[in-house]
Amino acid sequence: MPGTSLVVPVVLWGKHAPTHCISCIYLSKDLKTLATGCYDGQICLWQVDPDTLQMIPRCLLVGHTAPILCITRASMIQDNNYIVSSSEAGEMCTWDLIDGKCRETVKIQQVHTNMQAYHMCNCEDLRLFCNGYYPEIIVMDPFSLEILFMLSSKQNPDWISALHVLRPAKRKDDVVLALTTTGMVKVWTLTGAENRHQEPIYENESKQIRTLNAVCLQCCCYNQRTVLVVCTKYWQIYDAGDFSVLCSYLASRGERWMSGDFLAIDRIIMWSDAGKGYLYKLPANKLRGKKINNSSIPDHADFHTPSTESDSPFLYCLLNQPDSKPLSCPPSMHFITTTRANKTNKSRYLIRGDSEGIVMVWSIPEISAAQLEEIQRQKLPQPVTMKATLTTSLTEAWAGMNPSPVGILDQLEKQECQSVKLTASIYLPLQSRLVVGREDGSIIIVPANQTVMLQLLHGNHQQFNGWPQHQILSGHGGRVNCLLYPHREHSRYDKNHLVSGGVDFAVCLWDLYGGTLLHRFCVHAGEITQLLVPPNNCSARIQKCICSVASDHSVTLLSLAERKCVCLASRHLFPVTTIKWRPNDDFMIIGCSDGTVYVWQMETGHLDRVLQGIAAEEVLYACEENEANNTSSEVGLANPAVHFFRGLRHRNLSAIRHATQRGLHQLQMLGAHTNNDDPHMQRNHNSPLSIQGLRTNPKDPESHILFFDIEALIIELLSEEYETMSPGSLEAAGLINASEYLKVAALTQSASPDAHKKIAGILAKMKEGAESAIAKAESVLKHSGEHFKGHESTSKNSKPNTLGPLEASHGMEIAQLLLSLLHSWGLDSDLDRVCQVKLGLLRPMVPISYGVLSKANHMSLFLPTWHNTIPVDEEPLPNDLSLTNSIPPELIRQEQVTRIFTSRTHWELSTTLTTNHLLAIIALSHTLMSMSNATFVPEQERNRKLHRQSTRVNWSKTDEEHEEMFTQQQAQIKQGWSLLATLHCVLLPDKVVEHGAKNFKRPQVEMMVKRWQHHCVEVREAAQTLLLAELSRMGPKGRKQLVESWAQYLPQFTHIETINQQVNSPVQQTNGNANQQPHTPDPVDEEFEEEEEEQIRKPSSLSELKKKQSTAVIILGVIGAEFGQDITCSDNNKRRMSEDRRKSSVVEGFGPGNNNLARLTSMALSHLLLAPPSPKLPAHIPLRRAAIDLIGRGFTVWAPFLDISKVLIGLLELCSEADRLVPSMTYGLPLTPQADSCRTARHALTLIATARPAAFITTMAKEVARYNAIQQNAQTLNINMNNNVLHKAKPEILRGVELLIEKMQNEMSDLLVELMDIILHCLDPSQLKNKGLQDVFPAVCRFSQVSHCPATRRIAVGSHTGSLTLYELRQGKCVNIRAHSSAVTALAFSPDGKFLVSYASGDNRLSFWQTSTGMFGLGQSQTKNVKSYSTAPIADVARLNPMRLARLIWMNNRTVSLMLADGSETRFNV
């Protein structure tokens, strides 16, 4: 999965259904889902109606690279939401059936041919019993796909060809019965307590029978003594007691048995590779067991009567489909017995899927004993023949679509009046062009966004003729097989070159901009199957080459610079499956499908050697290791999306379909050598939109998937926005507050004159344009906008017939396209009007086929046929449709379906889709809202660009009016985006349900939690707002249940142990699909019962447990921080009635009465903040950022359980570490993880300081005192104080203090002494030498209780206890005097610094103080009260603001004036 990055796939399927040659078929027990696996590795999920068995293809699961061999269920629950699939390459996946998300995927050495899901005793969930091309039986967990244990053989170990697991009647343990290929029957008995770490588990008994290569072994569930064993040529019935043959039956000529099962005690069903089903009655006199009504036993009543029974099985019914074509390979068949809730009897079905992709279902007839006798009595017993009750196929479903599903170039069919299949395509992100090769040899180049709009969206563009313009390159005689744009793979290639390979054996080199054919390479003797690029570290000559592979098993290196073939490697006898490079040795190493390896010299084209067997494998492995060493450093850092798209690019090649796993071990695919080590690639792949051709089979025409990368799109939009802003305006917008930061930083540096000059210079520079600040901020950013500055030079001289400027920025177009596709049209008609008129969104014309991306790049893509299931209500047509009589009815129906789809069905598909789409919409609306005048209406977009460029020099009257209009328009647009975000964030659930949705899929809490601290700020904010909206919608009851279900996963930390929870960032980044909540019905309580049932499922693996732990910390943190406060905010009224308190705490579990959860959560959060970085818990990962953020948000809840000073120091450390210029929270582009942590920590500090100002100030003062104590003994203790956090974080602390003084003056006036301690610690002493406190730190001088005397270099502070504190800056000392009995209201030094006057309104006294020093300033200085006056009491003190109560102003050195708030003024003399 592209990490936590948000990618929205949309599919354009085109009018041809994908080929689906079925290799494996599975129908769920509840008859709601059919899964068919095909030889190309896809799985198709069909939605089945349990009553009529109508099947409609719903989605295609893409991910396996080899034929699917088996599919089975993965969960116990009746509405079985998961399946497990296994392919011929050893890949196994667990899929969620609702949205097709891949939950888990592994690749193992063993290949299974059969998996049986079985519920063992003593286990809460199913286990998979697998057998295949290996001598053991492997037992796996269906969710984590880990091997739990293996069953091994002592006697003649061999491949197991068939197995059956059952629980014998009246026994507690399970028995596994298995047959090896050589005919040994083996029995294991399992208790359920087995695990991997014990001794090998051997069979309990074994016996040789004569059956070889059995294909199926089945015990009768009605009478466990009967066992059916099927071989391809015959089937036999055995007695389980001593494994003796009871009867056997040969297959009819030309057919081979595939498998069979029991219908009743004495009836079986068999099916053969001709796709027919046979029903047999077994001879009862042969069977044994208590339940058999057997007349051949002497004490039986009927023993002496002549029996009608023969001794051989009797065929009484044949299931056959006479008119079907001959099959190219054996069909896959599956027998299923279900008990429906409403019916008493069982229904039984035989289903079959064949190579044509046709699915057939036979409902198996109930034939009574009387009817059987009828059939037997006939002269020539003729079995009843049954036809299939239902047949269907993908092609048929596609044919039923009217109008047919849209393809990406449908407009060309209208122009050319014929349909040409699309066979290859490639997308050029910089130019936003799609290049498509077709079956007739032409290559079409077309603007991607526009062609997609034309297919999917309504708008004026539907009326244009010949829009969008396209360019045709013709030069191939026949199908174009593959395309390559070398510059996209690596920047060393020319931007203008495009390479194509065709069925005509030619490789063509095109000039993309001129549209001309530059050269045709005719070297191969077979059609070209693939084009690739040699790695970056080859020699200069080879670097100019591209590599082509053809169907005659040849590989060439073609030099684009020299226009000739450098190396032709063509003596391979078998198809090429892998190409490796040893650039240092100048070797190209080619592996073939028979396991041979050829080593070629690239420069000379000589064949160096041919290797086979082990030597061959070793050479290939050596190349792989070599690659791994070269690239390991960057691969980890690359955006996971890169690997995903790269993997996809090479997925549909016929050459490699079955190649892996045949001779050589897991060789990587042909694409394995692509240059991971090149940073250029990683950047380019991260384009906001990329389009992949998808074809499931080499013969199919291509469908196209559009991948919208939300994060890349936001980055592109914001980079464009910020590039046009000057640093001044960036600062004005509050994005980067550099000058403020430099100002504060300047205070803490020493004020030596030259430093002063420097700082002044910097500040001046900031004012001019601070390009430096921007550059610095840009360097903090991960993506600088390099790839937006295209090369204009080439496009300027392009010919007139090409498609306009090729490198504009396409961010806005892509955003328009995506928002138009995702917006829920039809929920709010007023908003829809705003969207169309003001914002320029367009309505969809057809229901959209979305996709879901999940683990390991596996995808599920919704099929268009599924839209036929949307019921069109027989409601009157909307006004705008009723007038259109001329339109064909199917188009009107399509429009109705589309409207129902956008308003309801879109949100009923799956929780994953709902979450991803809502996040995308909200993040994009917020981004566009933050940009100036961002709208997609073309005229306004133009205005915006002009308005940005216009320099305001001489204003005229019209300009001012225009400006006013512009501002008004801007406000309306911002409001439009805001409404759009609100609709999707808050109002959506109710609106959708209002519109008649039966099962709205809620956004998934867990997926939003994963993105709580996503590195893209817009996505982060979207996830946070959406999660909070969802939590508050749940109400107290829902939140309580959520807390209860997650509390069990909260990691328990003591203070000493290290974190036992490995959350390395990759784990953190996995797409949140650990325990997916099942789809939930509407009523709240029901919804939660179901959710809980899902979550109780214990995590099946360690990594899943770790994921759950990190999710739990965040979920509980969010609930505690956001919803725990309404309880704990009771500071003083803790004396509330205890009953009342109990009631409220029951709701959340974070209350004062029951604070257990709050304590545990706060410990986990502070652990994440303070734990030292380790490989298990790296320093700046999203999980840590989330912990920092939540400590800040919920500080009032956590405060009682935190070591506040540790937390503050930890946060300060994070702030002080990062670069000086970290932008503010509103700056949208992603930062480096370190800068991001710094920004989050800074924000958290602000939140803590404002939430608990007193705690913040006292804790900081305590830390400062501790720092000063250490500093005095620093020399003796040998400590470098410059490394101390308090030293490094001075600017940070000052920022916090300034903020508090501004926001919370009254609270601060009570803490003035502590405040002054902190300020003096942070200010550089030399600053106060030449300047007054008023100039250095004006904020604190607002308090009339503070006075600074520059002459004597003293600062006096009056505290709320009535004492005075005098700071002697010269000696760095501080003296405390008891002065008044109540709080000091005001004080002031006399101008010459001899006297200090203080006034306290509480005891109505005014006192003068004089400091006497000893002789020559030596000895102790003492401060004495020289004189005191009583003053008139102030009336009504309580009403007045204590800050403005009184001021003291010295008239001269002996007289002071006391000015009171009531306007009176009194003078006093010393």
Question: What does this 3D model show about the protein?
Answer:
It is a single chain. The protein is of the alpha+beta class and 1470 residues long. It is elongated.
Q: How are the strands of the largest sheet arranged?
A: 2-3-4-5-50-49-1-48-47
Number of strands: 61
Assign an overall shape.
Answer: elongated
The stretches of 5 or more residues where confidence is low (pLDDT under 50) are 295-308, 630-685, 747-807, 949-953, 1054-1096, 1127-1147
Q: Can you give the helix content as a percent range?
A: 25-40%
Could you describe the largest sheet, including whether it forms a barrel? Answer: 9 strands, antiparallel
DSSP summary: helix tally: 42
**Secondary-structure-derived class:** alpha+beta
Which features does this protein show?
1470 residues, 5-stranded mixed β-sheet, 42 helices, single chain, elongated, alpha+beta, 9-stranded antiparallel β-sheet
